[in-house]
Amino acid sequence: MKDYQSYKFEGAAGVAAFTAVVAGANAGGCALPAAQNAAGFMGFTADSLTAAQQYQAVPVVRGSRCQAIAAGAITHGHWVRISNASGQVEDCQALVDSAPGVASNCYVIGKAETDAVNAGDTVYVTTQEFVAKTAVS
């Protein structure tokens, strides 16, 4: 079952469908992530908005089988996180499984249900957020 919610999109350049968005600066708002591994995941856009539609409502979906845009190769069954400021997702299984080393946080947003081969491929993701912490060795 999917959970849809509408948020006011706060980006100036518009937003494409199936991109990951994070909490906006204002209550009830969402925005594109600032960078890779961004915190504050809200869900995936179910529609697109043009730059002229800034601060209009965009439907955002969470739950099972959400469509997302891959930033590169993703293996089904692997954890994913936000890859870039365009709201694409990337495989982060290696970071989740990493041995102690440099302290870091990986903001996981879900699990890939399908494979992606190239950047721009559509992948299905079941949303499930957690932070994978890498300890200092």
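(the above was protein one; protein two follows)
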Amino acid sequence: MSSLNVLLVTYVFPPAGGVGVFRAASFARYFPDEGIRLDVVTARNASAVGSDPTLLNEIPAEVRVHRTVTFDLPFGIKKGIKKLVTRTKPANAGAEGRCFEGEENLLKRILGDVLLPDPQVTWFPVLSHAARRIVRERNIGLVLITAPPFSSVLLVEKLRKEFPDLPIVVEFRDEWLSTAIDLVGFSRSARARRIARQIEASAVANATAVVAVTEAARCEIRSRYMGEPDDKFHLIPNGFDATRLPRSGSSLNPCTGGKIIVTHIGSIYASTEPTTLVNALRSLPQKTKSRFKFRFIGHIEEPRFRETLLQLSDTVELSGFLPQHQALAAMNETDYVLLVQHGRLNVAAKFYDYLGGGKPILATIHPEGPERRLLEELRAGWWADSRNVEGIRQLFLDAAARGNSFLTEFRPDAFKIAHYERKVLAKSYAELLHSVAHRVDEVNSKTGSYEFADLVRQP
């Protein structure tokens, strides 16, 4: 296999922490063994939920990392501004000219119309200059752009104009137009949606290949661009890194005689909003409820989510952001891991770490989403509809009644789960990148000259 020079474009990269980092970090860790010489362009001062310097230890020395400045605000300041611009006044304040409840204030509308498609768009001018320079100076043979932030995919059209024969792969870690814009979008105005549609359409048209991380998302994106060839759209799921998952010497912690520990790892934000879960848990009989201890490890996006979780009083423990190795180590001290996801297209990245950690999952999820299929196919745990209080209540009643029996009932499919190990997935991804680059080379060698439109029309 000949070597391929790849430029990875990723807003967050170690030592930045947070779930968005790990996929890019795994590319850097495993691609060099698959015939890929990797350059990475990233934001030096990216707005991230935390810092995890230990991740730098696993980046091979041969990976060239180009760190650029971004004018995006630090995470803490950005969250303070978001809190300010989303704050509303009580409905009875209308007589004094203040906002009615639920009405966006003027500052939010102004920022929402300027920072499109997302606040990270302030990185784009610097990114565009740096990426074009690196492509020229480092003899780059393929560019891989990972989103979110979705403003990064603006780079596809920019590169296509300057390098018409350059293979460009754009991947969407979250499906944008049907789910992410409503769940986590900074602006959901008609203008924001129109611009998002235009940016995605341009990126898909100018990309050589498009990658999604779930089959449901791949099909959703593909359905919007029926004029594009089907083999332009690919699936490379997220996964877990077995080398980063500490295992306890013992099996699962016994439930009888002590608390049933249920641990949630990851941020609490719109797509993991906990209200229905908390309502269900509060409705449990007191004797049952007192048997549980719920641990939430990770950033909590909004004060109202924290207030909701604190309604669980002495049965809940909020730990805040922890470096990944500490968060994953907490799975050794739990009986169940908790998954909360309301979307129907995306799979939470933590789901795969849960799989690799070997602990049974209690999931409140969309009944038509890909996580239900994976849970059942991999026999990885039990689920309830995330919108159904009674269903969630029964999920935890069953967990309490199960007691020690889940030691025998929980029989995950280890063979299938192994397919989601990041080293295995990186090999598949590298094969795809080599294939895409080879296909472009073949077109060039046959025609002697090349227009990008000719490639996308190839059968």
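Reviewer note on protein two: Residues 88-104, 248-252, 453-459 have pLDDT under 50 and may be disordered.
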